[in-house]
Amino acid sequence: MQNQETKKLVLNVVGNLDSTLSKDILKQIQNLSNQKAIILLDFSGLASIEISSSENMPAILRLATLPNLVLGVTGIDPSFRSQIEIFIADNPVEMFSSKEKGKKDLDSQEESLSNPQQSFIVRCPACNVKLRVRSHGNHQCPACKSKFTVLSNGKVSSFQKVSFN
């Protein structure tokens, strides 16, 4: 994978996000999962979200934990934001305010795909201890046991617990 060219793709999600469309998105991303790829999901053409799409969304977003994939999301209408954020919360997926900003920021992460074993230093969001991590994704602090996500741009996002009583 060292000398392989990075595939860059914008998937424009248009219409009704149902089980069929979410399954098609999953297949598209899985087809790229054996190569270096930067993928931006653009939801600006989304008209509605059906509950049936939720069966595939976790699998789609979990692919972002692969060291050779960078996944971003843009164009989320405010009325759909909470539905999409539920899936994004546990995955290293970045949300962007515009397609242009998403493409620019994701392009800047192409170097991280070339050096997936390169480690970097982050601070635990709970106890502020310095930690060395080798990849973006979910991590747990060995000092305080809090869980957090290192996004593909190196930023740290802490998990938030939500209780539905």
Q: Stretches where pLDDT falls below 50 for ≥5 residues?
A: none
Percent of sequence in beta strands: 25-35%
Q: In percent, how helical is the residue content?
A: 25-40%
Task: State the shape.
Answer: globular
Query: What structural class should be given to the helix and strand makeup?
Result: alpha/beta
Structure description:
It contains 5 helices and 9 strands. It is globular and about 45 Å long. The mean pLDDT is 81. The chain has helices spanning 19-31, 57-62, 78-88, 99-107, 110-114, and strands spanning 7-17, 37-49, 69-74, 94-96, 120-123, 130-133, 137-140, 147-150, 156-158. 27% of the residues lie in helices and 32% in strands. It has a 4-stranded parallel sheet with strand order 1-2-3-4. Strands 7-8-9 form a 3-stranded antiparallel sheet, with no helix packed on it. Strands 5-6 form a two-stranded antiparallel sheet. The N and C termini lie far apart (47 Å). The protein is of the alpha/beta class and 165 residues long. Strand 2 (37-49), helix 2 (57-62) and strand 3 form a beta-alpha-beta unit.
